[in-house]
Specification:
The structure holds 2 protein chains of 2 kinds.
Chain A: H1 3-23, H2 32-60, H3 65-70, H4 81-84, H5 90-111, H6 117-145, H7 149-162, H8 174-181, H9 192-205, H10 227-242
Chain B: H1 2-13, H2 26-29, E1 32-38, E2 41-46, H3 55-69, E3 75-79, H4 92-101, E4 103-104, E5 120-124, E6 132-137, E7 143-147
Parallel strand pairs in B: 2-3, 4-7
Antiparallel strand pairs in B: 1-2, 5-6, 6-7
Classes of the chains: A mainly alpha, B alpha/beta.
The structure holds zinc ion.
Zinc ion (ZN) binds at residues 112, 114-115, 117, 137, 139-140, 142 of chain B.
């Protein structure tokens, strides 16, 4: 696998897996408007994933975009562990998405300057959509955090639970550094100060406390996952596994 | 003749309605970016409004069908991502069509398509399709959809 292939597929995987999580909300949203919002976000994420998978399929040529999504096993997925975490209650979904949306917004903003034309175009396109996702999760976090005692407790609990998955967002490995030399990849570790600012100011408005940095999970980019991913893939891939090449 | 054909293709494409908002064509929506001819092959470049817009597949098929019906065989459809689609590409006439259809056109100030009031509130950033948000008019109290400004 070339570095560029792996780099591209990592981005696609995080979008796909979060998209699948959001799709689980379809018909289960707390209100009709929210149901539509969550499903729309899912659709955006699938679209972003597809763009990056199409490119990855072109680079490697072994598997098509669909095959990349539906016929790889858990250890071959390189998404961040944060995005595979279960939806839980609505508050937990909002916390997970807010932590990720604020990161990926900064990520795509930098990646839009990539020397790889295709990656830069996909990033520039994605920013427009992620802006909406971020506004959505941020506004909800503020409403829930600064809401009732119960809603505040639920999102604070989710924050404590999910905080351990934020460390790996800023980790660099040799694939990143190699591609950085060609100005294709970006230095995610440099996004941290801005991310901290976004998180701190929103948490303050939302009357929530930033958790202490304790144990930080790691490994998503290398194919190491929490148990949540296997169950997600089982559901998402079932049809293509049971009926290979089935079409609508 | 060949330039005439390119013009003809543009005219044909302009008759294809947007699958979700049939009062405007895919050309007016701004998703058709280019039509060109090289080595006897017409290339129609299209760009998605939103990455996950399900209408892309629908209008790709509509383009194929329309061109074939009009005698074109040697063409291909190319999906381009840059520059990213923006509502800035919509003409004033297109915005008027949307407004008459009951969808507030993309604009910094969202105006009620029913009574033209500027006194409107956002209900949800996400509407029935990826490109629209949901609003309510505080004067005539009608809920309505507004094209997102991106
Ligand atoms: Zn009105």
């Amino acid at each position: 696998m070339s570095n560029l292939f792996t780099y591209t597929i990592r981005i696609a995987d995080s979008a796909l897996i979060l998209g699948q999580r959001m799709a689980e909300w379809c018909s289960n949203g707390p209100t009709l408007e929210e149901d539509i919002a969550l499903s729309n976000i899912s659709l955006d994420l699938f679209g972003q994933a597809n763009g990056f998978y199409e490119y990855a399929a072109q680079i490697n040529g072994e598997k098509s975009a669909d095959e990349l999504a539906f016929t790889r096993n858990e250890r071959e997925f390189f998404n961040y562990q944060l995005v595979e975490q279960t939806n839980g209650n609505f508050g937990k979904t909002i916390v997970r998405n807010f932590l990720y949306d604020s990161f990926i917004f900064l990520f795509y903003t930098e990646l839009a300057n990539s020397s790889d034309e295709r990656i830069s175009a996909l990033a520039a396109k994605s920013i427009k959509e992620v802006k909406y996702h971020l506004r959505h999760s941020k506004n909800w976090l503020i409403r829930l955090g600064d809401g009732t005692d119960e809603s505040n407790k639920k999102v604070q609990d989710a924050l404590e639970e999910l905080w351990q998955y934020t460390g790996e967002l800023f980790e660099m490995d040799t694939i990143d550094t190699e591609l950085m030399k060609k100005n294709i990849a970006i230095d995610v570790s440099k996004l941290r100060p801005k991310w901290n600012e976004m998180i701190d100011s929103t948490l303050k408005t939302a009357k929530l406390n930033r958790p202490e940095d304790g144990y930080m999970a790691s490994g998503g980019k290398k194919g190491i996952h929490t148990e949540c991913l296997g169950f997600l893939l089982a559901e998402m891939q079932f049809l293509q596994r049971a009926y290979p090449n089935a079409k609508w | 003749m060949q330039n005439g054909n390119i013009k003809h293709i543009w005219q044909l494409l302009n008759t294809i309605p947007d699958p979700e908002i049939p009062v405007i064509s895919i050309v007016e929506l701004g998703v058709v970016r280019d039509v060109n001819l090289k080595d006897n092959l017409y290339t129609i470049s299209i760009t998605p409004t939103y990455s996950g817009c399900p209408a892309v597949t629908a209008f790709t098929n509509d383009i194929k069908k329309c061109l074939k019906e009009n005698g074109f065989r040697n063409f291909k459809i190319k999906l381009v991502y840059a520059p990213a689609w923006t509502t800035d590409w919509m003409s004033k006439e297109t915005k008027e069509k949307l407004n008459n259809y009951g969808i507030a056109p993309p604009s910094k100030i969202v105006i009620c398509p029913q009574c033209n009031s500027k006194n409107t509130t956002l209900i949800s950033e996400f509407g029935a399709t990826a490109c629209k948000a949901f609003y309510k008019c505080s004067d005539c109290l009608e809920p309505f959809e507004a094209f997102k400004c991106i």
